[in-house]
Amino acid sequence: MSWKEYLLVWRGSAGYKRLCAGENRSLLKSAASIMVVLFVLAIGVWAEKSVVIIDDGKERAVRTYAGTVGDLLAAKDIVVLNNDETTPSLDSALVNGMVITVDRAADVSISVDGQVLPVRTQCGVVGDLLNEVAIVTGPEDEVSPARDAAVIPGMSIVVARVVTKTEEKEAVLNFETKQKYTVNMPQGATRIAEEGRNGTAQQTWQVKYRDGIEIARQIISTRTITPPVNQLVMVGSGQVVSRGGENIRYAEAIDMVASAYTHTGSNTSCGVYPYYGVVAVDPAVIPLWTKLYVDGYGYATALDVGGSIIGNRIDLFFDSHDEAMNWGMRNVKVYRID
């Protein structure tokens, strides 16, 4: 109750009336003393106070009659913005000699999910700030500056959403074109002996996206659905070799090691009885039934195979043991003539 209110109440009391009637002068003197004390106390409450304001690190001494921290800051045009902190609080009563601290929040921006968010914060590190504004990051998301970086006023924080997906797609397996030379066509002429056909495959890819944009792609597996069929082109051979006054057109010349063998009592692997001109080959190098010309031996046909005839090896048949022994083993040029 203020001293004015107390005086009004007292004037309506019985004691006041007795005083006015002259019954008790000493009581009037006591009441007057009480009013003086109350008046002095009221003045003390509203007396001028000396305080210090520290605003964002800048110190300022002021004198004021304000009653609370908030009133003082308003009187001094000190605006407290969102997330700014004052110590003591704004509703605290002012006391002479008080130190008031205004801790300003940092203004930063956060770019995330296609938006730029302005934020005022007291957080010290980026990770705490993201938690404060409820931005949840995934295990692959990228934060720049890093989550443990210090928050600096004016900084821009970028959160990039990164996801890795597994995708499947059907791919084309292109055929290859193979050439085969033949003496049965004019020199330089070509003919497609077998048409090529592309195949198909099921591919599994691991694809990484940053904010919806593909940044990396890696194939994990490939499963052939339809294999390709290579195209075979026959090419007329213009290669000629002269042997015994005869010009022999050939498709391919191969350097080989030639050994010799004779009758064993068995037919060849092609089922024919061996004769001069039958040779054993490695079918991976020279297909069976291929027509050949062997230097020093003559015309021959690949009709047999042998366990030791591997790679660029050829075994020539002779009718007698002596002829085979006289041949021995030699380096020869073998011409494929068909």
Q: In a nutshell, what does this entry contain?
A:
This protein has 338 residues and is of the alpha+beta class.
Number of domains: 5
Low-confidence stretches: 19-24, 36-45
Helix content: 10-25%
Strand order of the largest sheet: 17-21-18-20-19-22
Share in β-strands? 35-45%
Describe this structure in words.
The chain has 338 residues and is an alpha+beta fold. The protein has six helices and 22 strands. The protein folds into five domains: 3-45; 49-103, Beta-grasp domain (Ubiquitin-like (UB roll)); 106-160, Roll (Ubiquitin-like (UB roll)), CATH 3.10.20; 164-233, Resuscitation-promoting factor rpfb (Resuscitation-promoting factor rpfb fold, Single Sheet); 238-336, Beta Barrel (Barwin-like endoglucanases). A six-stranded mixed barrel has the order 17-21-18-20-19-22. The chain has a four-stranded mixed beta sheet with strand order 2-1-4-3, with no helix packed on it. A four-stranded mixed beta sheet has the order 6-5-8-7, with no helix packed on it. It is rod-shaped and about 140 Å long. Mean pLDDT is 88; it is low at 19-24 and 36-45.
